[in-house]
Design brief:
Layout lengths: L1 H7 L6 H7 L9 H23 L10 H15 L15 H13 L9 H21 L2 H13 L1 H7 L8 H13 L3 H14 L7 H35 L3 H4 L2 H4 L6 H5 L2 H16 L1 H7 L8 H24 L5 H20 L16 H15 L6 H28 L15 H12 L6 E5 L2 H10 L5 E4 L13 E5 L4 H8 L4 E7 L5 E8 L5
Length: 529
């Protein structure tokens, strides 16, 4: 009753005090300590949001896949033909495409706008996670979930990517809410929506089933829970039919192959556990984008993350074991079911750098399970202790992201895939600006891109201008008055062609971090073609 009064009674006129006070249950903290806790939470959240926004359009360099979405939606708005399946073969997800479509209606064309939908989804996920955890558990649990969701490195990194997997967390937390509410039909519909957002969300299904069983077991006993859970599982199974529409044809088929072998191979489970810990620490996404992870500290980081997970599972599991099977136990069992099914059916390779986007579907079950385990492992009598522990973990995670991701990209750039190479201005955007200024008074020009990664960002920026962007095999029959600009990465096909073709004149070198050349532009005057 006291918590309920503090939510809407004496603290109702001061939401900051109410929020900070929520980490103590009941009111066992002095006013000064509550203010200190609130300040700590505010700092963590402020840094987490800032990390999602800083240098959004250039750190890292824009992936060609991100710009693909922008070009297709710009064509849709212009009434031009567009592609309705992603390069991988999936139908574009409704969250990313819908938000980006709205932004393109009102925003000028820039590479930053391609990533704004993911930021919006990520911020919405943070807010909903707090509200949902508070509603179904208590306020201290909501604070823990808030801190973990906001600070998880892969959550921040994917909030900075403009593509469908970045929205999986928002879709999954909504589905989790309905499962926690015991709403069978709404949970199934939310699951279908999550599959449309990205097909890998199929692995949220075991989590939803276990959570709903826990809720119903506590409410009506195991017999009624089995009936309700059976209906729920059947509806989720029926919802899988949407994979035939949303997913690439090759992904929609049943997964067989080495599943049984993996299930009985202890070494495969160990390898999967290591990659799972690196998914959570951020090492996987750091290696994917930056080109380097924790380096010499990788083993220590793996041990730290693994130890935290194991300690939470043991200590929190023992605390939950003393209680009847309910929603908390359902969350933990569902998390383990989702992770195990992912590993058995897909394999640990889907968590490796450059492929870790396929494992983003596991993050909501993981975060909620860690929240519940932390809440119970460190004592339910004092909500401040687990909240402080979550704050420490969040601080360490943010420090890792700041140093290993943002600072590295800002000062040294990426040594990973060339599409991520960047500089003070995103290299593809800087090349486009220079070409546009150069060709402004010439009645247009043609830009030829050497690869997918260069073509789509330039094609997006060129929408509505007199610049034609094309690929080497699609040159126009007649050169525009401004001539032809070739844009490519160093040591790429254009550089080799320029060494053999005197008519190709070096125009600009685009420099990135530490003065390294990350993109080159050549020019061929119209009269020389």
């Amino acid at each position: 009753m006291q918590n309920r009064r503090s939510a809407s009674g004496e603290d109702g006129n001061d939401p900051r005090r109410s929020f900070a006070k929520s980490v103590a249950e009941p009111a066992g903290m002095t006013k000064r300590r509550r203010r200190a806790v609130f300040a700590g939470i505010a700092v963590v959240l402020g840094v987490a949001v800032a990390f999602r926004l800083y240098g959004l359009g250039r750190l890292p360099g824009i992936n060609g896949d991100e710009a693909w979405y922008g070009v297709q939606l710009a064509r849709l708005l212009d009434g031009a033909p567009f592609e309705w399946r992603t390069p991988h073969g999936n139908i574009p997800g409704p969250l990313h495409s819908g938000l980006l479509l709205l932004l393109l209606l009102f925003s000028p064309r820039s590479l930053t706008v391609l990533r704004l939908p993911s930021v919006i989804s990520s911020l919405a996920q943070i807010g909903l996670t707090y509200a949902i955890a508070k509603k179904h558990f208590d306020r201290p649990t909501g604070v823990i979930a808030l801190l973990l969701t906001a600070s998880l490195p892969i959550n921040i990194a994917y909030a900075r990517f403009g593509w469908d997997p970045s929205h999986s967390g928002l879709a999954a937390i909504v589905a989790a809410h309905f499962a926690l509410s015991g709403n069978v039909w709404a949970s199934a519909l939310a699951f279908v929506f999550a599959l449309l957002v990205h097909p890998t969300n199929v692995f949220v299904a075991p989590f939803l089933v276990a959570v709903l069983f826990g809720v119903e077991h506590a409410r009506i006993g195991w017999r009624g829970a089995l009936v309700r859970t059976g209906l729920h599982a059947a509806l989720l199974g029926a919802g899988l039919a949407v994979l035939g529409l949303a997913a690439a044809p090759g992904d929609a088929r049943a997964i067989t192959g080495d599943a049984l072998t993996r299930a009985v191979d202890p070494s495969a489970w160990v390898a999967s556990a290591v990659l799972y810990s690196r998914l959570l620490s951020g090492d996987s996404v750091y290696q994917y984008v930056v080109g380097s992870g924790f380096g010499a500290a990788t083993t220590l980081t793996d041990l730290l993350v693994g130890t935290i997970l194991l300690a939470l599972l043991v200590m929190g599991g023992l605390a939950l074991r003393a209680r009847p099977f309910g929603r908390e136990a359902g969350v933990v069992v569902g998390w383990l079911g989702s992770v195990a099914s992912f590993f058995i059916l897909v394999g640990s390779d889907a968590m490796r750098p450059h492929l870790e986007r396929y494992a983003v579907c596991l993050l909501v079950p993981t975060t909620l399970a860690m929240t519940v385990l932390l809440r119970h492992a460190l004592g339910r009598a004092n909500g401040a202790v687990p909240a402080i522990a979550a704050g420490i973990m969040a601080t360490l995670a943010l420090a890792g992201f700041g140093t290993r991701y943002l600072h590295q990209l800002q000062t040294r750039g990426s040594s990973s895939h060339e599409t991520f190479w960047t500089g003070p201005v995103e290299p593809k955007e800087e090349a486009f600006r220079r070409i546009a200024a150069d060709a402004e008074h010439n009645g247009g020009a043609c830009i030829v891109a050497d690869s997918w990664w260069v073509y789509w960002p330039l094609a997006f920026l060129a929408q509505g201008t007199n610049l034609l962007v094309t690929e080497p095999n699609a040159l126009p029959a007649t050169a525009p008055p401004g001539g032809v600009y070739l844009v490519g990465f160093p040591d790429g096909p254009f550089e080799r062609a320029a060494s053999r073709t005197p008519a190709l004149l070096p125009r600009w070198d685009i420099h990135g971090a530490e003065g390294r050349t990350v993109l080159r532009v050549w020019w061929m005057p119209a009269q020389l073609q």
